[in-house]
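Issue 218. Parser rejects a valid record. Input:
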Amino acid sequence: MGTLCRRKPGRPVDPPDGGWGWMVALTGFVVCACSYGVMRSLGVFFVTWQDNFSVTAAQTGLIQSIITGVLNLAGPIAGALSNRFGCRVVVMAGGVISSAGFVLSLWASSLSHLYLTVGFLTGFGYSLSLITTMATIGRYFTTHRLRANSFASIGNSIVSFAFPPLFQYLMDEYTWRGALLLIGGIVLQVAGFGALVRPIVLKGDVTPKCDRTGDVIIKQSSTNGEKLLENSSTAESTPHTTHCSPRETIMRKISSVIDVKLLTEPRCIVFGTAVFLFGFGRFVPNIYLVPRARAFGVEEYPSAFLLSILAIGDIIGRASVVLLPEWPKFRRVDQYAVNIFLMGVVTLFAPLAKTYATMAVYSGFYGLLMGGCVPLLYSAIAEIGGANRISSSLGIAMFIRGIGNLAGPPISGWLRDITGSFDATLLEAGGCMVLAGLLLSLLRLPMFHSTETEEDIVEPEVKCLLTAEKVQTETVSVQTHIFRETTC
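Output the parser choked on:
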């Protein structure tokens, strides 16, 4: 296992599919609990902030939108920093930054201050720790990747039951400022667990050392047999170079930060479009489920309990998705497509739910499917982009989904205003998710198939290195032949 924490070029390993990867998954559990779990529970501060700063509900609700938006939109930054400085450092830094966002809110004098601290600062820290941890889990696992992602993502569903009453108690005892300070201490645990995120070098991660002209230089080491070879002109210990084109050199430098080639691959474009449509409609039912129930005359507490039913379904979905087998012709990306397609179909029938019983049934089914889509999404990203490019692919996917998350709720609210009914918002959300599932089904067409497995995807600079190593091997063979002739 020691080889997993030493970044030695030339000694890449296959994903261990277990081992220390389960400790990384445990870190993912804590990170999800301290990010999404805390975000889901901030609603207990809603009325207090609104009364304390004398602002509207829309202005107060913007805090939640900022956290979610920054978390997703900062995905490429998190991926780039992870590629540059390593996953462990980025996860720990994310924990410190997100904790600082809550701690600095102790001196908040206006809602704008909370926009900056709880919104932007905490959201950015969440992005660094969450995206980097989930990307690292994808690098450690192959066949058990879905199980590891499910274990990590279920953390936010479990603590969603415990944090709201805890936060309310802290607010009653220490005021909302003291409660945010203590929440900052809880979130700081991410920095400690981030130390468990060991970097792992996979095949395809090793890059050659190029000189200024873009040549890969492989130097023959001097050995005790050097004197025996000095009489042969063909055995001179001179550097051997393999030429890399300028384009490959430029791509190596860009790819060292983030792999922009993903934006040009057809299957990645289709997948990104589907992720945008999914993000556009995913949170609409969560937002308008309770207001729609109230519009049908359901009391406050029973209406709010619909979200609890959704959360229960979410937990069951995340826990049971690990039972899905992986068939060679029906991989995780196909399962993800079916999952979000069913989410869309169920939502399209949601306008028919006009009694509390039927609304509860819809909440349970939607929560069950929503819980399964998150682990499947992370596994599908690893299949589409490859395990060695998962930091870049996950960051780009989260950025695209963040745009959809930001655009979906306002447009659905606009539909509610012009139609006077919540049914239009549900139909819009369901249509987007059905379309996303159908788009992903296109990836089964031969034109989107890749001849390489996710472990075989290597960058141009790695291919250049392999060519250079071939030259080195041939040279060593010649030297060995000369050495034998000399000794004879």
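Fixed in the parser; the record now loads. The first strand starts at residue 215 and ends at 218.
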